[in-house]
């Protein structure tokens, strides 16, 4: 279940968040994801935010569905980028063998750690065989709410590797780095790619 206070924060700050993360061109991680999907493939932008990444996927010729728990983010994704976006929480994912790829870029970090095994199983079921999962998470330990009100779960790379393998994924790529988000403080992160 997505944290209500987190959703409310994104509802309030949707436009600010859009201005913070929107780019003129896809970054290296998104380019790698797009290039790994079959031509004309179907992908899900899971926790799409304002829709900037999904728009690049559409431009690349992919069929894109987008979901977000924040209704204001869904509105931005539709109005700003013309995405096929719907309001949906992670646990409501129900498709089977539908997607060639799922882009979960710094979205699942708002789910409780206790929910992650079930969510990864749902994602595996939703992906076609050999489908690709892109996962962006913050590096750290435990769970806590930051000063803007958003709930975060933090992970170590080996912890995520074990979770993915338990959900029958094969991890294929790991990148770590640090970035400054809406909170204004630099935080370490990881980008993990895995195949179903």
UniProtKB/TrEMBL annotation:
GO biological process, one term: methylation
Record-given protein name: Methyltransferase domain-containing protein
Domain named Methyltransferase: residues: 43-131
InterPro entries: Methyltransf_25, SAM-dependent_MTases_sf
Keywords: Methyltransferase, Transferase
Origin superkingdom: Bacteria
Species this protein is from: Paramylibacter kogurei
Pfam families according to UniProt: Methyltransf_25 (PF13649)
UniProt cross-references to PANTHER family, sorted A to Z: TRANS-ACONITATE 2-METHYLTRANSFERASE, TRANS-ACONITATE 2-METHYLTRANSFERASE-RELATED
Entry keyword Cell membrane: no
The keyword Calcium belongs to this UniProt entry's keyword annotation: no
GO molecular function, one term: methyltransferase activity
